């Protein structure tokens, strides 16, 4: 699927007017503060259910308003479409999300019908963000890498969202008991068994998705001339030593968890361990090498979903500030080869002939000013 229609109401500074996009490449440019990133943020709401810039819903609501709305129309995109091009006329799905700030109520709709779960929107529009903050996948903590992995797991394993939510609820319950100080051992064993069962299901789903990702990543890096590739290793760590059953790990570390007041072992501690010659990549790679690695990891995720017949919508926000011309061209070409939908922002007017030097994709170009898009 590809997002070909977008309309917002009271979303940051965006003008409430319908906009039409290409299912292939969309280039947005304009001055700082013009609304470029806000358009990407609105698209992100339809695929992620939240802002990729900030955690608070009220931050994206126009000043003085109490409710914002984002509506999107999807067509079949570039996946399995005839050579003559996609059908621009009919919409396959209509997605909507609104948030009442005063009532703290979120409403979701798919094809006019109310739905309860954000996953109902997200599965229709896989959105992947590449912005300056994404490079923390390498340099940041395990939470960033878990989030990166779980995005792919969600789209690869249909049951993952529900299992992970159950696991988080049980984790929260365990944490409450651990914080109480006085523990009923019989009750704790019950929660440990539930947690261990769900942890196994979550970890199995993550391992399957990681296996697909690693195959795609290995195939991709063979095409790249980078001297660090041979010495780099990537491994999935489930959150505890898998040589010992999780129930036994929890029991043997009960005193430690009681002192800390929260769960220390399990899928909430999972990580992708990135090492070069045995040392963490964050310590051994230059900033430029880290950026290259993250780009390849993001492209590999897109490859996995493409193999499953899903078109990913990539949001590339101000990558000119982070990537040199060669890296921008590599990223743009790989996304073209994948048949992804791309939204790319920049301050200066883009030069498509420098991004795609051999095969030019179909694209639309927009100038953004005061929250309004003008197609050129």
Could you walk me through the main structural features you see in this protein, from its secondary elements to its overall organization?
Strand 6 (105-110) and strand 7 form a beta hairpin. Helix 5 packs across helix 6 and helix 10 (287-307) packs parallel to helix 11. This protein has two domains: 1-126 and 311-376, Rossmann fold, CATH 3.40.50.300; 133-309, Glutathione S-transferase Yfyf (Class Pi), Chain A, domain 2 (Up-down Bundle). With 376 residues, the protein is α/β, with parallel strands linked by helices. 40% of the residues lie in helices and 21% in strands. The protein is globular.
CATH topology of the largest domain: Rossmann fold
CATH superfamily of the largest domain: P-loop containing nucleotide triphosphate hydrolases
Strand content: 15-25%
The oligomeric status of these chains comes to single chain
What is the general shape? Answer: globular
- Going across the major beta sheet, what is the strand order? 2-1-4-5-6-7
The succession of helices and strands, N to C, reads EEEHEEEEHEHHHHEHHEEHHEHEHEE
Number of strands: 15
* Measured distance between first and last alpha carbons: 24 Å
Uncertain stretches: 81-88
CATH top level label of the largest domain = Alpha Beta
Helix content: 40-55%
